[in-house]
FadR/GntR family transcriptional regulator (Kaistia nematophila), 251 residues
Amino acid sequence: MKEALARRKAADAQPDRKVSLVDRVVDDLGTAIVQGRYPEETHLPVEATISAELGVSRNVLREAIKLLSAKGLVRTDRGSGMTVLPRKEWNYLDPDLLGWSLSQPALNEDLVDELNTLRELVEPQVAAMAARVGTTIEILRLFEAYEMMEKAPNKLAGVEADILFHRRMFEACHNKMLLSLMQTVAVVLRSNFSLAIEVDLAATQYPDDHLLVAEAIQRRDADAARAVMTTLLEKNRNNLAKMREMLRQKT
């Protein structure tokens, strides 16, 4: 244990290792908060205690706390220390927070349902907007992503191509606010893929429906693009329900 702490302190002193140490502390503390080890609206231990537990300097801890604050997990106040904020104030669109939350079985199902509802509200409109404002090159990139889905050598490559297709569609909207949601979509798609692996079911990407979306966008038919994307997402929700039922039967 002492040797491990010594190695961490030595790494802490090296500037090129500081970022990775901060990331590790963010991950450790973020996971602990999401798991409920540090309940909402309670104080975290003092800096000296957490630093000693994690084997890092206070400077590294402070940098990590700043990042956790940006994610809406904690607040720091002079005189009262660090407080875990209520879950309703957490930034669930943050990819790290999503990842920590989705790794908790008690949170997973409801959170995925909420994320899929967000997709159903947003992505049909994204498809319609891409049909209206996407450039010729951006639309060609959409077809390239579809072809990658079709030719994917394995399930993982298919999922990554699926994510790329949706990213290309978001990019074709020329809207930074919408594009920032793409990270959330990627997390949901990977979560669905993990569930498909768990129940030994092919990770269904519905390539034919993706082609219909791309073709509608290419025709500049916003209504058709919206309708096909809505159908695709409905199939996704039905497939998710099927996988959950298979998992329940398996366990």
The chain has a mean pLDDT of 88. Residues 105-133 form the longest helix (29 residues). The longest strand covers residues 74-77.
